[in-house]
Design goal:
The protein contains 15 helices and 14 strands. By secondary structure, it is of the alpha/beta class.
Length: 419
């Protein structure tokens, strides 16, 4: 009998997969729930796995590891995908794959199964994560082989076998939630011209128009790019994100409606709720504006885009991701300080930032002339900085007289005196 470890969430897909595996394989199923901060009744989910045919079910609490080893590297990089997506699902899947391999080794399993569809990104992230640690294990992805074509088919599959359906049909969005975010796909979102039904869809965030009429301020302390305190109170990463989710969600911040390019080539639409993460990204970037020099910040922007693409594409366990993170860590040595932000009906704005490593110098930046900057120095700098423009302009004007005397007359005169 083959032993299969199944990535089990208790949702519709994985609830169907357990009986499907037993009908199509001579197998024993070990269900593994990976707790990355999703809202879940784990005792009920464990019982559901057993009731539908799993021989055993484990819950692995890896929230701390998720925050420290996956979310903070993404935050320090300011990694986004296609300018909007804060990589909630993308950061969690590599860790889940790693945990699945750990349980497969403990259970001496021959295969790992997951519920990712054959059209989505998660199949790439799961498969690549499993391959990175266990290239010898078989990967079973039922959505790539079974005859079920839709979530309605899955519901009928369970009903025919008199198994409970873990959802209501009218609320059959495809969702993924964890400590960082909640994503929604399907139903009216499959037509990009439709306005999303936020009032009935959202789980963690109120629609901006329903947020309070009074703004709320939050102060965040960072040490080397990592948030460590809220409003002066030290917090561990899990508690800090949970607290910001509550504050941000109540103020309607962190909603993203994105038509994105999936790894497999198609476009898809999703609604993302990332209230706490959006606040942290905004505050972290404000602190970097204060603490990073121009060249470092400019290059880091390119690294951020590449980091987002790498994480989105399931390439977490690669030398490139590690190298990008190593560069980012060096830039964060001086990203320490405090940022205050104002939240109001879906918006996040800066209310000030300070740092012992601030590169802002009032003596230089002030309109009042100080000792470190002389206005007259700018003229010579601009002449040299604009020299290519000057040379091109002279060339395009064309020669009118080749005599040395006429050339001398055309040459720009420098009349100022220099010390």
């Amino acid at each position: 009998m083959k032993k299969i470890v199944l990535a089990y969430s208790g949702g519709l897909d994985t609830t169907v997969i357990i009986p499907w595996l037993k009908e199509n394989y001579d197998c024993e199923i070990v269900a593994v729930c990976v707790d990355v901060g999703q809202e879940a009744d784990w005792e009920t989910i464990k019982q559901r796995a057993l009731d539908t045919g799993a021989q055993s079910c484990y819950v692995a609490d890896v929230k701390k590891e998720y925050v420290e080893d996956y979310l903070w590297p993404a935050l320090k990089a300011n990694a986004l995908y296609e300018d909007k997506y804060l990589l909630g699902t993308s950061t969690a899947r590599p860790l889940i794959a790693k945990v699945l391999v750990d349980y497969a080794r403990k259970e001496k399993a021959e295969a790992i199964a997951h519920g990712a569809t054959g059209k989505g990104n998660d199949q790439v992230r799961f498969d690549l994560g499993i391959m990175a640690f266990a290239p010898d294990l078989e990967i079973i992805a039922p959505w790539r082989t079974w005859k079920l074509k839709s979530r309605d088919d899955e519901i009928r599959y369970l009903q025919r076998r008199k198994l409970p359906v873990p959802m209501k049909k009218r609320d059959s969005y495809s969702r993924d939630d964890n400590l960082w975010h909640i994503s929604h796909e399907g139903l009216e979102l499959e037509d990009p011209s439709n306005e999303p039904s936020l009032k009935t869809m959202l789980k963690m965030t109120v629609p901006p128009e329903k947020a309070p009429n009074k703004s709320e301020y939050v102060e965040i302390d960072f040490e080397k790019g990592i948030p460590v305190a809220l409003d002066g109170k030290k917090m561990d990463g899990v508690t800090l994100i949970q607290t910001l989710n509550q504050i941000g969600g109540a103020n309607g911040v962190g909603l993203v409606d994105l038509v994105e390019n999936r790894v497999v080539g198609m476009k898809s639409r999703g609604i993302y709720e990332t209230p706490g993460g959006s606040i942290l990204y905004y505050a972290h970037q404000e602190l970097e504006h204060l603490c990073l020099d121009r060249q470092t910040y400019a290059f880091k922007q390119m690294v951020a885009q590449k980091m987002g693409e790498v994480i989105y594409g399931g390439l977490w366990f690669t030398p490139l991701r590690k190298a990008l993170s190593a560069f980012v860590d060096v830039t964060q040595e001086t990203v320490t300080g405090t940022v205050k932000v104002k939240l109001y009906k879906g918006s996040i704005t800066s209310a000030g930032a300070s740092s012992p490593y601030s590169l802002y110098n009032a003596t230089i930046a002030s309109f009042t002339t100080g000792e470190l900057y002389h206005h007259g120095d700018a003229k010579g700098f601009i002449r040299l900085y604009g020299l290519p423009i000057l040379v091109r302009a002279l060339m395009e004007k064309g020669p009118q007289d080749d005599s040395a005397e006429r050339q001398e007359k055309r040459r720009p005169k420098i009349t100022e005196k220099w010390d």
